[in-house]
Amino acid sequence: MTETINRIRTTADATGLLSEWSGDRHVAVDIPPEAHPSMLFDIMQRAVSESRAFWELADAMPFSTQP
């Protein structure tokens, strides 16, 4: 599992994506619309197919004071 974690961290850093870890099991990665995260997606998909990770995608909206 450590190898997978290191690959995720290294790839997120190398591609300039912001990431936030909660311990060594949960990571959130900010992927802006103009980003090209295919390398990170490949790593995550491989971990999921090996039953070493669970993938969840969220489409968050920026905070706004307008209703």
Description:
- The chain has a two-stranded antiparallel ribbon with strand order 1-2.
- Helix 1 runs antiparallel to helix 2 (38-49).
- 37% of the residues lie in helices and 15% in strands.
- It has a domain at 1-31.
- The mean pLDDT is 86.
- The chain is of the alpha+beta class.
- It is built from 2 helices and 2 strands.
Short description:
Helix content is 37%, strand content 15%. It is an alpha+beta fold and 67 residues long.
Which features characterize this protein?
globular; 67 residues; two-stranded antiparallel ribbon; alpha+beta
C-alpha termini separation: 43 Å
**Oligomeric grouping of the chains:** single chain
Give helix and strand order, one letter per element, not per position.
HEEH
Mean pLDDT reading: 86
List the helices and strands and how they pair.
Elements: H1 2-14, E1 18-22, E2 26-30, H2 38-49
Antiparallel strand pairs: 1-2
